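User: I'm writing a tutorial on reading structure tokens. Could you give me a worked example: one chain, its sequence, then its tokens, then a sentence or two explaining what the tokens reveal?
Assistant: Sure. Here is the example chain.
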Amino acid sequence: MILTLIIWLFVGCAAWGYGRIFLSVRSRDESGTSNLPPESLGARLYLGLLCLVCLLAAAALFIPVRWWVGLMAAGVGVFLSVSGYDRRVGYRDNSVRAGALLLAFLTCLALFVSTREVNFFDTALYHQQAVKWLSDYGLVTGLAMIHVRYGSPSSWFAGAAALNHGFLAGREVPIVGGICFALLAVTSLISLWRITQGRLSVNLRTLAWVIFSGMLLTVSVLWNVEAPLSPDLVVWIASPVIALLAADSFGDPSKRAGLVLLASALASTVKMTALPFVAYSSVFWAWCFLRNPGLRGKLLKYAAAATFVLVLLLASNFKTSGCPLFPSSVGCSSASFSVGAEVAAQTATGIERFALTGARQTPLLLLAAVCASLLALRLSPSDKFVYHGVGSSLCGVLFVVATAPNPRFGMGYFLFPLALAAAALFCRAHSFHANSLAEKRPFVHAAIALSLLALCAASVFQLTGVSELLVPRKLASTNGDAIHVLNRRHNVYTTLSVSEHRIGSLVIWQPESCQCWDAPLPCTPDLSLSGVELRDPGRGLAAGFEAKIRSASRISDCSSQSDLLQR
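And here are its predicted structure tokens:
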């Protein structure tokens, strides 16, 4: 818990520095975080995080993501953060009390996440293994031949790889996985506190952020994604951030369209389910490009930066699978390290098929998102934040429904219109009852106190050892370690069992179940192709893999037990 809190504060400082690239302070009154709107604070930290992990993902193309690589990348962000600190900012007594409350709340969150059992199926299936590959070898050529899930690497895993060393090896999962959970909870607390203290007026953007955060926090706990390494929660948060950037009152219109495009590209490196944001922001960018001839030079610079990020995404996919848009078979190479178009097509078909098995809630969520969008537009017809929020969300909803209609792949797209509509309704009601929140200040304070007690109580209940007060529990890594296999088909407490097998020049570890957890590399339930060999036996695993003589592909059935079958 203590190390989790320290790392969160350090990474938050680095993210704040990188966030200055996107949301620079525009007035002296906003030089301190105490005067920055909470939703802007959250957006700035979120975009800074995306910048940080994207830098680490770029480094992974060439070198392993060692601890010093992460320290250097974070150090630059800390320098940017400290260099922008204004010592002239004063702090009143109530600011000190608010800071103490914030630190106490963050400590409770760190305790809750550090003691949380990591039982998310995909984290044990391939998330932690992907982190191990990045931390030990970097991005390995042909890695998707070991497991198809490695064919589309996430920059979020590169961030975790920087911590997967020394005594933190196998313990970094809740630290990194809980960052976005803490971001949502802390910014929501700041919003409610400042509104009830009369330091922030009730407005649509803040309320939409708070309501949306509350929805995602609830879903995260119910679906067990608050502590694991799932990149889904990271992408879900992008919905309000994109709307905030698109509707921000920058003096230069080119900055608005350019930053939206760049932020969308950064989110896509975390998971390709964020590609609808790229499509929406591209249209927005083109519209600004045509309407502002004098700003085309600046817009082209932003487009070049976004293109660089997207090239990084395509290059990472191509290096691991031979397919730039894996699991799509478009552009798949026939090189010896490529899994080939056939395996890519089978993987895409499998994702679509299993998406349909968990799509029972999709029609209801789709109907709710459409109705909420119409209501939000009706209640706030002139608010650009609503227009961009609805537009980008519906773009994502259409993408999810058309490709893999399961809520997990786009929960942010479905929920953000609901948050907008709820916030618009509350603002309309608040206009008739101006003192409604001020009158409920004691209830809000009581709710904050109860949340702190609930987090502490849950942490004590989850605690398995005093050592978790210092560091999170370690994932299973050797035979006999306890594991919890949890999805819609299974809820079994058992032990890890992996055995060594030789296939040609390749020695792999195969788990008795589908999950490798933190077992030694290379671990896989089944190879993506028969005939997989080391590219250069002399260099070992670092050289990558190839299949010079391809046999019939045999995709593992483990994918059917993961993603869409998670509770």
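What the tokens reveal: The first strand starts at residue 482 and ends at 486. Residues 296-321 form the longest helix (26 residues).
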